[in-house]
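Task: complex structure prediction.
Instruction: return structure tokens for all chains below.
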Amino acid sequence: MRDLRSTAEVRGSEEPVVIGSGIDFSFGDGESSKQILFQVDLEIRPGEVVILNGPSGGGKTTLLTLIAGLRTLRHGRLRVLGEELLNAAPAELVAIRRRIGFVFQAHNLLEFLSAHRNVELVARLDPRIAPTEARERSRELLEAVGLGHRLDYHPSNLSGGQKQRVAIARALAANPELVLADEPTASLDGKSGRDVVELLRDLAKRRGCPVLMVTHDHRIQDVADRIITMEDGRITPATEPRIHEKIRV
Amino acid sequence: MFPSAYLAWCQLSHGRIKLIVASAGVVVAVLLMLMQLGFLRAAYDSTLIVPRRVSADLIIMSSKTPSMFRPTSWSRRLLYRLPAHPAVASVQAVYLGNAKWRNPWNREEFSIFVYGLEPFRPLLDFEGLPERRELMKLPDTVLFDAGSRANFGPVSKELEGGRVLPVEVNRRRVEVVGLTRAGVTIGVDGNLVTSDTNFLRLFPERHVGRIDLGLVELKPGVSAGEVAVELAAMLGPEARVLTRSRFQDHELKFLRENGPIEFIFMMGTAVGFFIGFVIVYQILHTDVTNHLPQFATMKAIGFADGYLLRLVLSEGLLLAVFGFFPGLGLATILYEVAGRVTLLPVEMTLDRVVLVFSLTIVMCLFSGAIAVRKLRAADPADVF
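Output:
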């Protein structure tokens, strides 16, 4: 097993945003239990865009939900944004989730709110942000994703790509320290899928916010700084990190 | 954070039809509750119209009398013992009975309640009686209750301009010389007021010495409650002495215990509550079910369960408000109609408005609290 701490030090600066080691995870209990993750180690460093790929059923999404604090880890070690998630209480998980931006496979916008309100809803999760500031920031984010002219549209009046761009603005609204994305291009055509992912990468980079993206969309693999492949619940050892030149803005 | 009520409003108002249907459900519930409670109160109020007109300090009746509308007569001699008590200023006898009124227009007979009382300075105030007390001294004169049901005939109209109307009561010819106002109750459709002497002419089988109510006026400054105890001792077990407020309690108690009225109207109110509960529950439950992915997303993003609980409860509260006020408006109109049809005093009272508003809120919150259990099914881990 690699020495995570020394790796982090080699990278030079801060502690990794996500450090996991020896993560096991099973669904169900006893006889009917099915193990999904086996001794998974991973690390995401500040500012990094990481793609997690691999065949379906390989445990990618399960790993993502563990990092997201959506499931409780029972075995192994997982430290996200400086918090230990092993056996964390529900309230601690909620607190961690508020520091993470989410982009889902389905956009999952609230259809009874306008694009602007959808983003503002999340911007206002942080009690330190004043309502007027939240509103202003949401507008800026929607402008940044190219939807400044669609602020008051409800999701039902937006195209799939537009909805996913609103979802990206929403993911970034609460100043997240980490963005997790699950198949963000699944419901989009090639062109808009690529646009959305590049947008996500650029905005995240500009904020120095690391991104972990689960996808098996081959057309977008090159946006990543590093690619991790998972198969049958294990990180495939053959995967050598493909380090792209970092985009610094 | 967005106030959960704002989000609830966005969610409700997003589906106009749903909002209208849900509000209509609450309107029906509010309307039912207000109507049922209104009728119940009207039944009580109508029963108390005459008891509230009693100006005597003490009321005496037979201990076998369950209600003044079903009197058992008792001996007038007992009443005449009372002036011996130093606190008693005067006593009066009242005769009560049901007579047959023949409608002069269609010759049909209807039961009418007759008050026979001392026409000079009666201790039971009937509107119009003091002005006509001289006429009441004449034989076979009566006052007709203008609040009586229509099946007695258009008597009030006939008397316009000071005319008198000859009618037949208990197969005796009498003259209606004026109008009074007492109003109908659940058991009484109309009233006549006459002098004690004329009462006995109408009821030849009744004996002058057997009276139905005794009215006692006390000297100023004495305590009615204390004197009542002393007078009861003078009268013995045959008679019951009541203060004005105890007399009203006695009449209400009879209505409560001897008729299904309270049960019927309370049942109606409960049905209204239940209908509202089911409709609001159905709407909120469907709403939560349809929005389960969104709720799961909100949980995933970092909204606590408490926030979503408040969101659903706020929806319930908003429905309560949207349903209550139209319901109140409709009920006010229907009270007017019901009052005109039944002649009962159906009136909106502040305490009933407050009571039904509280019930509506409880109903909607309760529905919300049950619908919200569905939220647990929103597993944030499922949104990935």
